[in-house]
C-alpha cells in the first residue's frame, strides 16, 4: 500500500507555484487529488469532453478491466461497491468521476482543452503551454511544473492495410467504437486478438450472425474462474464490515498478480539458441495454459495448433480468458490465421488469398505507445522527441520512469519502463509515482528551488540498470513483436523490469543529490 502521510502536510512557501496536469484519466485525477491535499495549486487540462481517459474513450462491447476491482482502484478509495470481480468500463468511468467530485478536484479540470505544444522558458523558469480551447481558439498558459499524465496507450494504431479506403461498410478502431451501429444479425470482421480484440469479439459473438476473427499471431490467455462473475454477497459484506479484510485481500491479490509472477518473466540463459526455450516455471505454465485451451475447445486439434503461441507465456501481455477459447469454438465464429492481406469493397482478403465478405470491420489493432501527442521543448531547444532518439531511433527513457535531463520540472506518470509485465494494477504504480512527484515538489518549495531536473549521470546509471535487467526478461523473444518491444533493438521502452516492491523502494524518497537545482529566475 502507499503511505500518503508525507505528502499530506500542505506546503506554505512560494505562493503562485502552479502545476499543470495534462490528462484527466486515472493518473491525472490521482495527481490532482494529491496536489490538492498537499496544498499545491494546479489545473488539469483534458482534451476529451469528459474525464476518465481510457475508461472514457474505450466503449466497445465487452470493455472491462482485466484486473480485479480490489486492486484496480486507489488505495485510499477502495472499490468495495463493485458488483463484479472485473469491473466494466462504465463502472470504472463512474468511479473516477465520483472520485473527482468526492475529492473536490472537478472544479480544477478544464474539459475540451487540448495541449498542442509545450516549451520551457529558461528566463522565466516556467513552462509555456499552448492550448486549444473548446471553441477552437488557442492560448498560451504558463506554469511552474507539468505532470504529463497522458499515459502510454492512448493513440490508436490504425493499420496500413492495402485497399482499406475501398471497404464499403463501417470500419473503426476499438477506441473509437461506433455506438450508433447495430451489428446484430451482421457479418463482422475483427482484426486483432489482444486484450481489446478478445473482449470485443467475445461480447459480440452472442448477437452477430457471423464473426470472422483475423489473428496475425496467437496470444497466451490465462484462465480466471471468476471473470464473468459477481462478487458474492459474503465477500462483499466481509470487505465492508470486517476490519482490514480488504487490505488483506489486496495483499493476497498483490502477491498473486504482481511480484509472485516475476519468476515467469525470466528467460532461460540458453534461449537464443532455442526458439521455444523457457525457464522451468514458464515451461510448467505453458503446459497448464495448453491444457486449458484443450479443455475449452474440446481438444479440437486443428484449432489448438493455430492458437498455441510459439513464444513463452508473458512474452506479450498475458490475456485473461473471458470465454475467448469457447467463443473460438462456436459454429458461427471463424478464426483466420496469418493476418490480412488486403481490404476490398465487400470484405477482407486473408494471407492465403481467400476473400471473406463482411458488413463491418472492427480494428482491435492496439495503440502506438508514447506516440507524442504534442511537442515538448526543454532547455536549449531540445525536444523530447530528439532526446528519445528522433523519429528514426525513437525509444523513450526516463530517470525512474518519471523525469528527464534537460526537461526541468517535467514529470511523467506511467512513463517509460513503468508498465507492469504481469496482470497487475497500474494504479498502484501511478500512486508510487505521484507520491514521489509531490515529494519532489515539496522539496522544491521548501528549499526555494525554481526548478529541478535529473543529472545526466543519474539518468544514465538508472537506464543502464534498466537495460541490464531487461536483457534477462522474456519481452524481447525473437518471435515476439508487440507494443512492449516496438523500438530499435526490440528493447522494451514500456515495461518495468524490476519487481514492484523494488520499484516502490526506489520511489520512497527522492534522492535530491541526483537532481540539478535551479534557484530563481535568471
Ligand atoms: O492491443 P494489442 P490491445 N494486421 O497491441 C493485431 C491494455 N488493455 O488494444 O500480435 C493484423 O495487445 C496484433 O497482432 P500481433 C493492455 O495492457 C487492457 O488489444 O501483433 N493484425 C494483436 O493481435 C493491452 O496489452 C484492457 O501479430 C494486426 C492486436 O492487433 C493493451 O491495452 C483491455 C495488425 C493488437 O493487440 C493493448 O491491447 C484492452 C495488422 N496490420 C486493452 N496490427 C483491460 O482489460 C495489429 N494487429 C485492462
TrEMBL record:
The keyword Cell cycle does not apply. Keywords: FAD, Flavoprotein, Oxidoreductase. The keyword Oxidoreductase applies. This is NAD(P)/FAD-dependent oxidoreductase. It comes from Chitinophaga nivalis.
